[in-house]
Amino acid sequence: MKLEYDSKTRKGKLIYPEKVIERSLGKVPPSKDLIDKHLHKRGGMFRISLMLTAIFSVIGILGTILKVINGFDNLSDWSVYVTACVFIFTTFMGAPMLSMATKVARGNWSRPVSRLSEIFCISGIAGLLMFLPILWVLPSLEDGRNTLWFYDPGKVPAYSPHIWTTIVMIAFILTALALLWINARPDFAILRDNSKGKNKIYSFLSWGWVGSTKQWNSLRQRVSILGIFYFMLLITVHFCLASDFLMTLLPGWIDSLYPVTQAHNAIQGGVAVLIIAVFIAWKWGGYKQYIGLDQFWGLGKLLFGISLLWVWFFISSLMVLWYGKKPNERDVLQILMFGKYLPVFLGTIFFVFIIPFTLLILNNVRKSFYGPPIIAISVLIGNFLDRFRHYSSAYSLDRTIDENTHRFANLPEIYVPSIVDIMVLLGAISLPIFLILIISKYVPIISLWENREYILYGSHEKYHHTEVLVEGKPY
Amino acid sequence: MANKSVLGLFVDENVVGDTLSSLRKSGYKDNELEVMTGSPYPEGTFGEAEPHHKLFRYPIFGAVIGFTVALIITVGTQLAYPLVTGGKPILSIPPMLVIFYEMTLLFSVIVTILGALFESRLPRIFMGAYDERIMTEGYIGLVVTVSESRIKKAEDTLKKFGAESTKRGWE
Amino acid sequence: MQEHTQLSDKEITDDLLSPVIRSPKWFWMTIGSLGLIMLLGLSGYVWELYSGLGVTNVKRPVYWGAYITNFVFWIGISHAGIMVSAILRLTQAEWRRSITRAAEVLTLFSLIAALSNILFHVGRPWRIYWITPLPPVVIGYDFARGIWPNIRSPFVWDPVAVGTYLLSTILFIYTCLLPDIALVRDKVKSKIPKIIYSVLALGFRGTPRQWKIQATAPILLSALVLPIFVSVHSIVSWDFAVSIAVEGWHSTIFAPYFIIGAIHSGVSAVACLMAGLLWLYKLDKYIKPDHFDAIGRLLVIVATIWLFTLFLEWIFALYPLEDPEIALRNMQVFQSPWNYLFILFLFTAYIIPVSAWLFKNIRRSAKWMFFTTILVNVGMWLERFLIIIPGLSRRTELSFNWGSYSPSLVEMGLVAFTFAFVICGILVFARIFPIIPPFDVKEGMRFRHIIKIGKRNISAVVRE
What we know:
The complex is a heterotrimer.
Chain A: H1 32-39, H2 44-70, H3 79-90, H4 96-105, H5 111-119, H6 123-137, H7 160-194, H8 199-206, H9 213-244, H10 258-283, H11 293-324, H12 327-338, H13 342-360, H14 363-366, H15 371-395, H16 419-440, H17 448-457, E1 458-463, E2 466-472
Antiparallel strand pairs in A: 1-2
Helix pairs in contact in A: 2-16, 3-6, 3-15, 3-16, 4-5, 4-9, 6-7, 6-16, 7-8, 7-9, 9-10, 10-11, 10-15, 11-13, 13-15
Chain B: E1 3-10, H1 13-25, E2 33-36, H2 58-80, H3 93-119, H4 133-137, E3 140-147, H5 151-160, E4 166-170
Antiparallel strand pairs in B: 1-3, 1-4, 2-3
Helix pairs in contact in B: 2-3
Chain C: H1 9-21, H2 27-51, H3 66-90, H4 100-121, H5 136-139, H6 154-187, H7 191-201, H8 208-241, H9 254-281, H10 289-318, H11 323-334, H12 338-357, H13 360-363, H14 366-393, H15 409-432, H16 438-446, E1 448-453, E2 456-463
Antiparallel strand pairs in C: 1-2
């Protein structure tokens, strides 16, 4: 086996032996090629998908306008809308978590996909836009419902859930955008010095980045601090959404675990959308030589572990509620799982747990290019069904109580989406993708500096009669 | 078959690798050659044959056994004494899940351990050609196991490549 | 991991096997004094067996006292051992090598300590086999038994889960111990120990096939033991949470809350144990400040997640605005003596240690880590106490009077017994087998590389 790449001078081309190719991060050191790829004109596929998502986004906005015209009084009318909005937060906005977590844990395998995961931060804008009308949908505290916030008529405003959630959400999205910018700043500087046409934009975006030791150190500090903030805000956002925008609307649902379950779902959905994004970048994006089997393998393992954890959360809730058997607990189980929503519930379990578990347990599936993306799609379907099961049943609940049984008189039927709902749904899925596509024209989707850094730390060396991959961890 | 084995002790990894490849060239098969080390080396350090194992299948066998055992225990004991307690029906699924889960994992672990022993070809009653310095002082042992007629030649080869000491044993 | 002492195979063997070959000077003294504590505790137990549970202060309505608190505490400690070892193995963290064995052994002995608490707690421990579904053919016909264990009761899940965990832990430790038993076999000179070690080593010779299985099996077993580990404490928490009789127990967050709490106290115990081993056996070549730093950082995250689950438990207990629940929480926080214990618990379990771990110098100092982690464990013991006792001592629908509880002398003696037992067990284990796996450390030395970039030497590892 001949090594054309000299690890001492770090020159030449890395040619990997067959056995270690899956462990490698790519075949070619990131170089001019990667910069050219980013600056190069996008292909027809890109333009078509941009157009399609733009059209669907407009349709979605039209649907929202129709909803608003219809009025905010009928809660059940908004159930799919709320589902769609929360779906954005439990999928797209969970994806950046991967980059944050692996950066804190100092993993090397995620370097080629970390930017792809950060780029999802931009979808928060779509989420925030969709969230605004919900503020008018959610009833105020004056109607006597329980809340996690303090409410004292006359002293504390009846809209405290609305206020707190909006503040937390804006903080969350700002943190996410700040992270994206901080991480991409060195790349903007590289592009500023290498591109001809877009010079001005990049020199603005790079904000005076020259790559001094001080700048690098502060970058690392900022990323780790903001990454921890991001994680905490992610949990807080889901705590707010799940408690006041969902659980308080379903009286008797006292489940202290559900906010965590939903936050966990967000990370699961985040990994799933990331796998699909990585697959698209690998298959059609032209980044085949930068994304290796190792990335799919790592993400597949992650998805497997997260799916197992999800079912543990779910069983922990179910066990306590099922054993409790209080009237309110029976009602909750009937509404969310075993009553009219049984098909949706079974679908959730099937797509979120059974498919990932049975398939990802096989190493051949985890360690393949096509296995993880297919399972990721299943997880996303299940994630949507799970949100639908919770939010639409809570929003279309008739709260009349039967006086004899102390249980709800009428359990909600499965909500059937109208055409306007489907318009909204299309828009909710397209708008984040549209934003991501737009921003990918300016932010390189494979991090230039992280991969350049890896050339310093990873090399293949001869070890007696074999060949090994040596990986350094500098801090 | 009366096979004999001879052990050569080496210090240098490269020498072991060279000896191994030269022995292979002179007609010794992979199953007649074995390296012994006191601690793990990266795979293929000596150019030795890559060991294949099927350890990943064992947990699945164990899981099937464990699940069956759990099914028999849970269903059997409940049907043998069908008394409803705490308003929980006979054969209700949530409590049974717990027993299923534990038993499945327990038997997976047990069968995996048995598999690990089998796949490492343990227990081994007689040590054959072996030297304590391999474990304690980091020597590398190279064992050639062949029929009695070829043993002399193998020992000579080991010595030629600079084995510090050789030792005979039987298989 | 920047600090590193490169050692030869022979040095490692000599260093790590010296406590196995010859007892350290302090050994018999320490074992003797621990044995005395154990003897005192056990004499209390004999007294309890003779005169019944009346010698404890467990009485209506507080049926669960120090024994159950101690049971949950030791189950919690047992969790981190395997968790640290399994997670570090699965992620192939290089710094795992010198601490995995100690963590696993901690798990083993704390599990046994936890199980012994159940024996102390039950009135007729000689009928413990009633929880097994063994047919009369096996255990002999017992007229009083008559029925099968009720698998719909959480108290049957408990022995199933803990038994599974104990058995898998023992097997796991043994599998990882094989190469080291072989090493001891080849190192000891006296005849009888040599025979025993030879039998235990099963003829391990260190062929590539055996090393490959040694590399694969622990990872596979880690993946199998992790789900067991999660289930065990969940099931222990369901002992509390599935009942509706006691306010403050019926909460869905209990399983994650207990698990995270267990990790918090257990990882702290591992750090504490590492510091102890470092001083007792002078292992400063193997346990570095970097180890404590890494554990300290992990603990900050774990402790904060634990605090969040505590917050969720509280907020959702108050959210339905039910009077008994509010009264209970009021009692826990504002009424003596629970309020003092509660403040002590918050300060020892979170506020003091976590604010200390934010400083790098404290994280890197074995002494400081030793003291802060002991604080955490004081706090976590109190946490379990505060979950169990106030909830039970309130008058509820099924128990008609108020009660109070403080452990009796016998109970305190047996709690002390469990602590002495775990320490003693680990020391005896370290006398028989190497507590830091020499083969793993040797592999670590071999897999270590240096990458030179400019004037900086960066430590690197070989990835297969």
